[in-house]
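Case study 2.
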Amino acid sequence: MQFGLDNIWTSILNSVSIIIQNVPNLIISIVIIIITIFGIKIVKRSVKSAGDRADLPPDVTATLNKLVQWTILLIVFIIILNIFGLEQFWLATIIPIMFGTVIGFASISTIGNMVAGLIIMFSRPFKVGDLIQIGEDIVVVKEITIIFTKVEKGDGIVYIPNAEFLKNKITNYDQQPEILRMIKFSASYEHDVNTIESIVLKAVSGVKGVLEYRRPNVRADNFDDFACQYKLIYYIRNFRERGRIESDIRKNIFQAFKANGIDLTTSHLVNITGGTQKLTNQ
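Prediction:
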């Protein structure tokens, strides 16, 4: 029993002795930590100020801030290890184990998304609030993070992995000064092509949102069995209003054709027993 108490007492004395011996190192470490805390606050303000001067998006500035802070903390951690003489042990054993564990948990796709996130933030193909098209989806960018980009679709909020933006074609409608749009329609061969063109161009003129300096034009697009297919080409600037603009144009064309006795319905040939038959007003 006495032997056990002696061992405990010896351990306590050794621990106290180690603490006393390292009091200067502890004081120095505490001072370094305090300086680091205040230093990080100063760095955060400096990075934000630099980002504002460089006109960087808030998400890019926030990411830079995090990277700088983690770099500072890593440097301070190594300095404190060096003060206590533990840097070789940590650098040779603990840090490689920790790094390997992190890599083990982080999949290759996650690392790819992080790299893609940095590329997006610095190349800036789009920014928060932009209306973009990725693949077949037209979405509004709500937030850009290091792993995902938060977007809003017609059916709600969606988180898209950043790597997807590098794999797919991206169209940013808010960065285009003009956007080409088309409407297809048909009219019977009974009507003169120039007359059709004149009526349609008059129907388009004055529609709010159609660019006036890019004059719309009408093209004969294809010859069907009983009607000529036409294509109206026009330009807009605000892609968000495409639905309303197209609806206004279609209404004007319909009313103009009706007023001029032009039927928008077309005939088709259908197979029947013993041959074909013309069906009208399809």
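The domain at 179-268 is CATH 3.30.70.100 (Alpha-Beta Plaits).
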